[in-house]
TrEMBL record:
Record lineage: Eukaryota, Metazoa, Spiralia, Lophotrochozoa, Mollusca
Record's protein name: Microsomal glutathione S-transferase 2
Cell location: Endoplasmic reticulum membrane
Single GO BP term: leukotriene biosynthetic process
Gene3D superfamilies the record matches: Membrane associated eicosanoid/glutathione metabolism-like domain
Pfam families cross-referenced by the UniProt entry: MAPEG
Signal sequence, start to end: none
Length: 160
């Protein structure tokens, strides 16, 4: 068995980040380009038939969520754990996939994918908060919250 470096544990979040880049920059961009061609909407126009507008809006909405989702993935991976963070981000990507293709069909079909992706993003955000608070309190306060919770489930006055 070869020695592992500290960076090895981040291969999974890196892989799902690449998957997210592929989804946004290849799959969804290709759909917008094909929609432009199909409905003869020239760049830089953003108006056209409802089918084009839904495709364009689905892509724009995904662009709006992408920075937040990637930042949450990496903060949660660094300060909480890379595996559950990556699983939550993968769920987010699945939700965005359902959102995008559903929205292209009809506006109402975007809702299930949107709700699923938001739930995954909230989970990622919770991991960010817990991870950062835990490391902050451990480093600056000398209290390991996670160890206290696991060991006896409570704090004594001497801990504070």
């Amino acid at each position: 068995m070869s020695a592992q470096s500290a960076i090895d544990q981040f291969a999974l979040p890196a892989a799902v980040t690449i998957l997210g880049i592929y989804q946004l920059s290849v799959r969804f961009v290709t759909a917008v380009v094909k929609s432009r061609q199909k409905f003869k909407v020239q760049v830089p126009d953003t108006n056209g038939p409802p089918e084009f507008i839904r495709t364009y809006r689905a892509h724009q909405n995904t662009l709006e969520f992408y920075p937040v989702s990637v930042v949450c993935l990496w903060i949660a991976s660094l300060f909480f754990h890379p595996v559950p963070a990556s699983v939550a981000y993968l769920g987010f990507l699945i939700g965005r996939e359902r959102y995008f293709w559903g929205y292209i069909e009809t506006a109402d079909k975007r809702i299930p994918g949107f709700k699923f992706s938001i739930k995954c993003l909230i989970g990622l955000f919770a991991m960010c908060i817990f991870g950062v608070v835990h490391k902050f309190v451990r480093y600056y306060g000398g209290i390991d919250i996670w160890l206290k919770i696991i060991s006896n489930g409570s704090f004594s006055e001497s801990d504070l």
